[in-house]
Each structure stands twice: as C-alpha cells, then as structure tokens.
Amino acid sequence: MGTLVAALEVSISADNGGNGITEGGTASFTITAIPAPTSPITVNVGVTETGDWGATVGVSGATTSYTVTTSDDQVDESNASVTATVQSGSGYTVGNASSASVNVADDDDPVVEQSVTVSISDASASESASDLVFRVTLSEASTMDISVLWSTLGSNDPDRRAHAGQDYWAMSGEVRIRAGQTS
Fold first, then answer.
1. 3-state helix, strand and coil shares in percent for the chain, rounded to the nearest 5
2. In terms of C-beta distances under 8 Å and separation of at least 24 residues, what long-range contacts does 63-66 make, across chains too?
C-alpha cells in the first residue's frame, strides 16, 4: 500500500490587513503553504497596480514574506492599490485566498490653479530718444515660468498718434518671467 500525500495549497494575505502605505512605501504580503513543504517550492505571484510585475518566490516552511516596493513620483494622482495574486504553478494548488490588496495613498500635493495679472508700465520719450523701456510685471509671483508675448502698436488717440516705420519700429517678442519672480 502507498503513502497518501496531502496536496499542497498556497494562499496569500496582506500584512496589517491591507491597511495601506504611502506611495514610495513597501507593501508586504505573507504567502502560506499548507501543509508546510519539506523542501523549497516555487510559487508564482503576479502583481498588479498600473502594470504587471511577475515574480517568483521560494517557499520553505509554512510561510514566507513577499514585498512590493511602490514608486514615489512627483505626480498628483488618485489613491490606488497593489494586489498580489498567487498564480497556478507546479507542485501546488491555489487556495481560496488567492489574492490580497494593500491600499497605496498618494503623497503629492494637488496642482493649484493660480491666476496672475500681467501689467506693463507706460513709457514716453521725445522723438530724438532712441529707446523706450517698458516694465512687465506680475500681480504676484507664479509657481511656474510665465511667458508674455508682446508687440508694438500705434496709439488710437488722435492727439498721440504714432506711425510704424516713422515714429517707432514695429516689433514683437516674448518676455519670460521665471517662477518665483514678479518681473
């Protein structure tokens, strides 16, 4: 008569009940094999969040830990989760607890809409003057670089009429005000 060998069943659970981590942290899972294998076996684990990172974990004894390190980016996004799933493989069956999830909290500040006002100073000169200097300013410093497109135009005021090519040169360009600056 032969010896009856119990089928090895593998399951997974999230450590700390899947309560969560902050992005850049490590999600921890426990893989359990029942009964405990007498020698190491390979358990296939798939991980999903925004992609799929396959991994192979050696199990020796009844349990082993499996960790997934998340990326700490600088992008504000919704909170998410990391799910580890035991996949079928050789030498074991997948248990009822075949997947476990850990919540991942975003740690980036949301983008704040900012409204700034651009103003330009008046300038005046006699016809013999060579340059007019206009100062471009922001109502408050911006968190981003601000580009202002400009062009020279004549006045619509009949008492102050200037003509391109005679009284001034028609020109255009761009002024960039760096983040944190007002002019």
1. 5, 40, 55
2. 63/30, 63/31, 63/32, 63/33, 64/30, 64/31, 65/15, 65/28, 65/29, 65/30, 65/31, 66/12, 66/28, 66/29, 66/30, 66/31
Q: Report whether 64 contacts 30 (CB < 8 A).
A: yes
What is the value of pTM for the model shown?
0.54
- Alpha helix locations (H) across 6-155? none
Are 124 and 38 spatial neighbours (Cβ–Cβ below 8 Å)? no
Read off the pLDDT of residues 56-91 as tens digits, 9 standing for 90 and up. 445 555 788 888 888 888 877 788 888 889 999 888
Residue 160, token pair as written in the block = 């102050």
User: What is residue 160's three-state secondary structure?
Assistant: helix
